[in-house]
Write a structure and sequence with these properties.
The protein is an alpha/beta fold and 562 residues long. Helices cover 43% and strands 15% of the residues. It folds into 3 domains: 1-198 and 261-281, no CATH class; 292-370 and 389-399, Translation factors (Elongation Factor Tu (Ef-tu), domain 3, Beta Barrel), CATH 2.40.30.10; 404-419 and 435-561, Nucleotide-binding domain of ferredoxin-NADP reductase (FNR) module (Rossmann fold). Helix 3 runs parallel beside helix 13 (268-289), helix 8 packs antiparallel against helix 9 and helix 15 (421-432) runs parallel beside helix 16 (458-470).
């Protein structure tokens, strides 16, 4: 809402500048409000086209978050809104691009109908009544605006489609059109159609020019006629004292020369060149960094169509909660997909891993390549002995909100289904050692539809539980597992999972009571709330985090979003 208000404020201020500015007086007389709307929308577009790329500079955001250059936790949390800010800028660009083109269509019509015989330099048309459609194609700016709106339309519809039906292919390919958009944006400034007056002191707008023949159109004061009976050929003397009534009439201010007009200095490149260069440099750096394929050490299949991929890469370092982008050329030459790290490299082991749920064409093809499915009768080696994996490139790691979970004294982590992956790396880190972190109590809530899903990280949860019991800190982690759909009482199979069976609940969490209990046990503390799961759960947690309680406990909400 605040970003929308800022854009509206900028639009209105620029609108008033062109509506009231004397340097645009003659152009405004010709074009009317079309001038003001086109220039005001252009200023909003310049700002948003400048900022829309910054949230996509993932390396920069990860550096700011991880290097502690941003000391304030509240400011660091703003970095986690990068995707939301990117979408807001994109929607704003779409809306004001349509408005900008509509205003220029009106301008083309006005250029044709209001052709100026007096100020030829202002005209975009060659003669009065010229076909406006001819102006649209003959003038590069008008055509360029139309093409840019078409590209923005593809960008926004691609985003809307992926949000509606989760088709990542459409989103990916349409969003790569932003290169075309910025090329058109750079070319847009070359036309110089709209011009402003440069000599306001010598020629105030609406002034009276005695060097021109105006007898047929202008009623000249009698005093002036007696002083200059023939003023059509002689220049107006500079040392003449003008009669008082003539000076006081603002409409008849004297001008000493004809108005001079100049095209606007191109400003778009000034706005977008910096962020565009920064983005290109970062993409080049990411390409160089991820140019060497990783070594896949093992592939493990889990229940409910989930695959774990463990790999190694030289000089790869990551923090718990971060994610990487995987690119497999044999699956797709262009597509890359983000996956949260479930295992981070440490000082003692260089292995890191991800869990991916097989949903969609990309993950299905990737799974088939990893598992080497074959219809032949030849003997297939066990998956742990396979070494002929496809080439896999890893870009990252990149920051996420879950890096902050270890920086709170108390954290509430809520996962829905495969949304548990961001917390797995945090649990693995705590298993290696928890005393070096600020975190002193962790509430871990995991909601799944089927019992088999809990087996993805059942071993990890049991090992962490047993470790904390051995260290006399059983209260460090509070594990609650919820089975939302069941035909009866079920338990996680296996004697070693007894610690989890006692924490397995049937149904859905009663979130309001859960928050009240946590607030009561942690009076006057700030609790970090982290969620990765369905939007329905996310909205409930966000609402409860913003609610007040009688214990003085403050909840800070964080949500995972790629």
């Amino acid at each position: 809402f605040s970003w929308l208000s800022l854009n509206v404020w900028l639009f209105w201020k620029t609108f008033l500048l062109y509506y009231q500015g004397l340097q645009y007086y003659y152009l405004h007389q010709m074009l009317g409000l079309g001038l003001c709307v086109s220039r005001a929308s252009a200023s909003v577009l310049n700002l948003n086209c400048c900022l829309v790329l910054l949230p996509m500079c993932r390396v920069l955001l990860a550096f700011l978050r991880g290097s502690q250059k941003v000391v304030s936790r509240k400011t660091r949390r703003l970095l986690d809104k990068s995707k939301t800010f990117h979408v807001m800028c994109g929607v704003t660009i779409c809306i004001f691009s349509v408005l900008h083109v509509a205003a220029h269509l009106v301008n083309a019509l006005n250029f044709s109908e209001n052709y100026s015989e007096e100020f030829l330099a202002l005209n975009a048309a060659n003669y009065r009544g010229e076909d406006p459609r001819k102006l649209l194609f003959a003038t590069g700016n008008f055509l360029n605006c139309g093409l840019r709106v078409k590209v923005v339309f593809y960008l926004i519809t691609g985003l809307a489609y992926v949000l509606g039906v989760s088709n990542y292919d459409i989103f990916w390919y349409t969003h790569n059109l932003f290169f075309v958009f910025y090329m058109l944006l750079m070319l847009h400034v070359s036309g110089g159609v709209l011009k402003y007056q440069t000599n306001l002191e010598e020629h105030p707008p609406g002034c009276f020019n005695p060097n021109k023949t105006l007898r047929e159109n202008t009623t000249v004061p009698k005093t002036f006629e007696e002083t200059f009976p023939d003023y059509t050929t002689e220049p107006f003397p500079e040392d003449l004292s003008v009669p008082e009534p003539f000076v006081q009439n603002n409409f008849m201010r004297i001008c000493s020369e004809e108005p001079k007009f100049q095209s606007h200095f191109p400003e778009t490149w000034f706005w977008i060149s910096g962020p565009l260069c920064l983005y290109c440099v970062e993409r080049l750096y990411r390409y160089i960094r991820s140019n060497k394929p990783v070594t896949i050490t093992s592939v493990i299949t889990h229940p409910s169509n989930v695959i774990e991929v463990r790999m190694m890469k030289d000089d790869f370092k990551a923090r718990p909660g971060q994610y990487v982008i995987l690119h497999c050329p044999r699956v797709s030459a262009l597509e890359s997909h983000p996956f949260t790290l479930t295992m981070c490299p440490t000082d003692t082991k260089a292995t890191f891993g991800v869990h991916l749920k097989v949903v969609g064409d990309w993950t299905e093809r990737f799974r088939d390549l990893l598992l080497l499915h074959s219809n032949q009768d030849t003997e297939i080696l066990p998956i742990f002995q396979q070494r002929r994996y496809p080439k896999l490139y890893v870009d990252g790691p990149f920051g996420s909100p879950f890096e902050e979970s270890l920086n709170y004294e108390v954290s509430l982590c809520v996962a829905g289904g495969i949304g548990v992956t961001p917390f797995a790396s945090i649990l693995n880190t705590l298993l290696d050692g928890w005393k070096c972190y600020k975190l002193r109590r962790l509430y871990f809530i995991w909601v799944c539809r089927d019992i088999e899903s809990f087996r993805w990280f059942a071993d990890l949860l049991c090992m962490l539980h047993n470790k904390l019991w051995q260290e006399n800190r059983p209260d460090y982690i509070n594990i609650q597992l919820y089975l939302s759909q069941t035909d009866g009482i079920q338990k996680i199979i296996g004697e070693k999972y007894q610690a989890l069976n006692s924490r397995l609940l049937i149904g859905r969490p009663r979130w309001k009571l859960l928050f009240a209990e946590i607030a009561k046990c942690n009076r006057r503390k700030t609790i970090g709330v982290f969620c990765c799961g369905p939007n329905k759960i996310s909205k409930i947690l966000h609402k409860l985090s913003n609610s007040s309680n009688s214990y003085g406990t403050r909840f800070e909400y964080n949500k995972e979003s790629f």
